Amino acid sequence: MVFRGSDMAQANRSFDVVIVGAGFAGMYMLHKLRGQGMTAIVFEAGGGVGGTWFWNRYPGARVDIRSLEYSFSFSEELENEWKWSEHYAPQPELLRYAEHVADRFDLKRDIVFNTRVEAAVFDEASNRWSVTTDGGDTVSAQHVVMATGSLSVPTNVDFAGIEDFGGTIYRTSQWPHEGVDFSGQRVGVIGTGSSAIQSIPLIAEQAAKMTVFQRTPNYSVPAHNGPIAEDVYADWTARRAEYRLAMKSTAGGFFNDPSEQLTLEAAPEHHATEFERRWQIGGFHILGAYADLGIDSEANKVAAAFAAEKIRSIVKDPAVADILTPKDYPWGTKRLCVDSNYYATFNRDNVELVDIKAAPIERITAGGVKTRDAEYSFDAIVLATGFDAMTGALDRIAITGRGGVRMKDRWAEGPRTYLGLMVSGFPNLFTVTGPGSPSVLTNMVTSIEQHVEWIADCLLWLRGRGAATIEATLEAENGWVDQVNEIAAGTLFPQANSWYMGANVPGKPRQFLPFAGGFGVYREICEEVVERGYEGFAVG
Ligand code: N01
Q1: Whose CA is nearest to atom 16 of ligand 1?
Q2: Whose CA is closest to atom 43 on ligand 1?
Q3: pTM of the model
Q4: N or C: which end of the chain has fewer CB within 10 A?
């Protein structure tokens, strides 16, 4: 097999660290390790850097955390030279940013593209990992960092008859790089999560006719996106260090002005003005309206009622508004969507909404989609059906630790980690933003930086001690899993059939996957663990 890496990679098959994935996490990990004089190679399944932003090229794809905050903070030079065009940057700009980071830090010479890692096996005699790619190459490393992403493996939704469809099927997560022109076409979109909610308004503008198949309605808030005003940028630049530091103590790794007030202690008039004020600011600001929205059912109903009223006020047909209104899970317990013109799109003459909870899809036919009640004809179908979140990418690599144990088998009842960073029995293997860490509940870049820096510090510490291995103890892992579960049980999150709960993948154990105690708290815990000499880890 031809090794498709750089000259250095071809010449060397033994590294300090193998990094899997060249998204934001893998890129920063590589940069950080190089700075510590360590040798590292990155394997990346895609043809370029950027991870999420490399794959998800559907119309309207953009970040849902403000770009000033959803960006690297580790390099002042990088921060000074990059200027975001909009509050919520669109995918092409985010991809350009990833490319810029790769070029400015000369990362690509140690990234092997178009190469998927298939297996990682720990050898107990040498205390090294053997990592094998789909190119048939095997390299050896003391450590492995899984920077494989939390939402990187699409669910394999198999509709009966899908192979019969005579038109074109597109998946939002594997969008053609050259783009798609839907002009004059009849388009069906299946799914109403964030990917669909971002793409529907733009596809509707192009298509002759669009039909949206909704199984479960989602709550969405407007982004109110637009250019970043010069004074906002000037303030950010002047006070950036202070802002970046403050972000690290927030619950989500970004700013949304969280209130400490309890919902039912405020008057109904206050609810109306406070929710409206935050709706007008846009994005996740609304999540901070009251302190108990995520933990108190009665408080949550106030937010849900506000959202329902908003939908009714935007969508002209009351029957359509009713279908678009969530009714069977608490507000905010599925990932809140951030949109531009989503609800208003259903006022267009060329858009129809089909409730497939009431009349499920039976099959895809040669001409379109057949539900229990009707048949719809399409030239194209867009599947916006989601991801095997947080564990999907790790499950698909044959990771074998001590005693020949497969990680997938260890996790048969649900993922078990210590701090979302390591798994007992899998020495020297780290996960970035893995299950059991705040991850998808936060600004991913903030979380990625914290994890990468924690891992890099750990490797330096190990090197200083001349240690060969580090691994989570079973006791620490059990304690952490209990803590993650207890915190989740104190919230309303478990009441929704969300991908946070693994509920979107048939057969996946039902377990709240991220740590819901907040980023700031989590970061402090990670720091305390280090201060106590890597408490909960066995070092050999
Ligand atoms: O996926 P989803 P997504 N038949 O799982 C439906 C991030 N993200 O790609 O809810 C019919 O949310 C499914 O219905 P139901 C963000 O964290 C961020 O949209 O299972 N329908 C649902 O409506 C987000 O939360 C951005 O009943 C089926 C939809 O498909 C996460 O990625 C943008 C079905 C899937 O929604 C995932 O979002 C995009 C079936 N068999 C994504 N199977 C930003 O804004 C599934 N569905 C940054």
Answers
A1: 194
A2: 385
A3: 0.97
A4: N
